[in-house]
Amino acid sequence: MQALGELALFEPFSRLSANARSLLNQGALRQNAAAGASIMHKGQPASGAYVVLAGRLRVYTVTPTGTEATLYTVNPGETCVLALNCLFNDLLYPAWVQAEGPTRVAIIPGPLYRQLFAQESAIQDLTVHALSSLVFRLMAELDAIHSCNHRQRLVHHILLHASSEGVLKTTQQALAGHLGTTREVVARLIQGLVAEGYIRSQRGQLTIRDLFGLRRQQGGLLAQTRAAAAAPQLSR
User: Fold this and answer.
1) Boundaries of CATH 2.60.120.10 in the chain?
2) How far is the first Cα of the chain from the last one, in angstroms, to the nearest whole number?
3) Could you tell me where the DSSP H helices lie in 148-200?
4) What is the pLDDT of residue 232?
5) CA distances from 123 to 33, 96, 162 (A)
6) pLDDT tens-digit readout, 81-112
7) Which residue in 6, 16, 37, 234 is deepest, having the highest Cβ count within 10 Å?
8) Given this model, what pLDDT does residue 206 score?
9) Does domain 3-143 have CATH number 2.60.120.10?
10) Residue ranges matching CATH 1.10.10.10 in the chain
């Protein structure tokens, strides 16, 4: 199946005009990436708009200490908004992008995407939605960083990304990258959650044992963190 055929499976692209579909059919490229493969590097020119067809992309930054921290992820049918920003403002890409698992991406060259944006309401809608979604994701992440500790954020990540069977296929190193900390810290946090009976840890995956307990743990930790943050102000 060509890139256009897979793109058409997602609602914004299924509404394109015949002319737009013809342009995409001629210009869109498809790239397959293995798990962990680098898609973009910081400082690299963005060659086009990246739309995930299958799998997931992780967009991350690196702190001055060398620790990775996830900014957001791009799921099937979504596009990388930082790449769009680079295309429209002639900027170099400001982060790194990695395939979390086997991932397939459609790349729409920059000039073609700008042409489609000018002509197609569906592409305009996709772009605006990507921008607005990113703002909320980044605000939520900033709120978590400033109001929650690493344990709270780990619990939230497990609850958010576990499958319907309660299984999260990941590694301690990958979790450390998402949380912006070290593998050793994540290992200690997981050991604590295992000892308390909330999860089971196996090689390459975590399994939720006590869903409601884990949810209560998430709420309790958040309340404690916010109370601790407010205490100095109350004392004054």
Assistant:
1) 3-143
2) 65
3) 150-161, 172-179, 183-195
4) 39
5) 25, 24, 31
6) 899 989 998 899 999 999 988 999 999 999 99
7) 16
8) 95
9) yes
10) 148-230
Tokens for 89, please give them: 């403002």
Those residues whose C-beta lies under 8 Å from the C-beta of residue 55, and which sit 6 or more positions away, are 33, 76, 99, 100, 101, 102, 103, 104
Structure tokens that stand for 7 in this block: 């793109």
Name 36's Cβ contacts closer than 8 Å, sequence gap at least 6: 98, 99
Rg (CA), the chain: 20
Cα dihedral sign, 147-152-156-157: positive
pLDDT of the residue at 164: 83
58: alpha, beta or left? (left if phi > 0; alpha if psi -120 to 50): beta
Please, are residues 97 and 59 in contact by the beta-carbon 8 Å criterion?
yes
> What are the Cα distances from residue 230, in Å, to 213, 216, 219, 222?
26, 21, 17, 12
Beta-strand (E) ranges in the chain?
A: 29-33, 38-40, 48-54, 57-62, 68-74, 96-99, 103-109, 167-169, 199-202, 205-208
- For helices 183-195 and 172-179, angle between their N-to-C axes, nearest 10 degrees: 110
pTM passes above 0.90: no
- 10 Å Cβ neighbour count for 107? 21
Q: Does CATH number 1.10.10.10 belong to domain 148-230?
A: yes
Q: Do residues 28 and 53 make contact, with C-beta atoms less than 8 angstroms apart?
A: no
Sequence-distant (≥ 6) Cβ neighbours of residue 113 within 8 angstroms: 48, 49, 84, 87, 123
